Amino acid sequence: MTWLITGGAGYIGAHVARAMADAGERVLALDDLSSGVAARLPAGVPLVHGSSLDAGLLKRLLAEHRVTGVVHLAARKQVAESVARPGHYYAENVGGLATLLDAVAEAGIRRFVFSSSAAVYGDPGLDLITEDAPCAPVNPYGETKLAGEWLVRAAGRAHGIATVCLRYFNVAGAATPELADTGVFNIVPMVFDRLTRDEAPRIFGDDYPTPDGTCVRDYIHVADLAEAHLAAARRLTDEGVHGDLTLNIGRGEGVSVRELITVIGEVTGDRRPAVVEARRPGDAPRAVASAARAARELGWTARHGVREMVASAWQGWLLHHAGPASATP
Ligand SMILES: NC(=O)c1ccc[n+]([C@@H]2O[C@H](COP(=O)([O-])OP(=O)(O)OC[C@H]3O[C@@H](n4cnc5c(N)ncnc54)[C@H](O)[C@@H]3O)[C@@H](O)[C@H]2O)c1
Predict the structure, then answer these.
(1) Pair (262, 278) in one structural domain
(2) What are phi and psi of 167, to 5 degrees?
(3) In sequence order, which ranges of 171-246 are alpha helices (DSSP H)?
């Protein structure tokens, strides 16, 4: 097998590339470097610089490298930007996927793993969200992921491609400091950013119907997430596997924003109290995965807890923002 990892120079993609290469899989990456960093890729994993919207490039690279499976992570992922530029998000995330799936079908590739998101659910109001919960995304980013899943399944049926859609919950942490997320879009780096600026962390709303009034989320270590991709790829490699699978990738454990900020205070040594601000529109009170199906189908469960996520993310933050290597790539 040779696996193409789109978005392989990104935060999650580089972890997936590393986990798969370490496990002995042959992998190469495609990335337009719009938010990716080439240096994140491990030695021995070639990077093709280009876009998933470039049909000619895709055709050439799939043939030249004799690709037999694809893990598609390339996408734009900022919710606020998706609200401001929905056309761009649909073009990149859905258009890029459609172009890629056409090239995959034409090349006779029969295995495809798609990066989806818990954002497809919106706010189903469930204690544990199973994959059968209704999907009602509340922003264009989530819509592009849901439309992407539909497209993946339709292409799978039309062209006989076995597919897995992985719905990631809240991703955090780093396998090594160099691979840490350099963006400030998720809660852990957002709190680090506030502390680094000598400002108190912010909590958006503490009057939700949750035990401490703050939103509850399911955090997953990016190294565990990478292992889930390896398990999905291996599952697709098994003889006779066909059809589609849709799987939550989470820990099945809720952590409130206040609890997370407490852990961040313990890890960083900066325990200043958070300030409470108004709720943000579109934040669901609770989003926690049922992780049972992934365990059953992939034999995969997360191994790392929240403290390990925060501690590893903090090491990465120090490397990229405060340490001697503060010349962030
Ligand atoms: N980070 C999260 O919490 C999270 C949660 C759920 C789902 N996801 C999904 O996981 C995937 C990876 O996210 P990430 O956090 O690593 O983000 P990232 O921005 O670090 O990675 C995305 C990568 O894709 C590349 N890219 C973007 N558009 C491209 C295109 N058209 N062609 C080629 N390359 C392109 C970027 O340069 C980048 O390297 C995305 O599909 C995202 O929607 C992320």
Answers:
(1) yes
(2) -95, 100
(3) 187-196, 222-237
Asked if 156 and 37 sit in the same domain, the reply is yes
Cα 318 to ligand 1 centre (Å): 22
Number of domains in the chain: 2
Ligand 1 within 6 A of CB of 10: yes
The most distant pair of C-alpha atoms in the chain lies apart, rounded to whole Å, by 56
Out of 141, 168, 208, 219, the active site residue is 141
Which pLDDT belongs to residue 190? 97
Look at residue 238 in the predicted model and tell me its pLDDT.
Answer: 81
Q: Is 141 known to be catalytic?
A: yes
Whether residues 280 and 230 share a domain: the answer is no
CB 77 within 8 A of CB 185: yes
Residue closest to 110 by CA, chosen among 243, 246, 5, 227 = 243
Phi, psi at residue 179, to the nearest 5°? -90, 5
- Statement to judge: residues 244 and 189 lie in one domain: no
Same structural domain, 239 and 115: yes
Residues 262 and 134 reside in one and the same domain: no
Q: pLDDT, tens digit, for every residue of 48-101?
A: 999 999 999 999 999 999 999 999 999 999 999 999 999 999 999 999 999 999
Closest residue (by CA) to atom 11 of ligand 1? 73
Residues 34 and 147 in one domain: yes
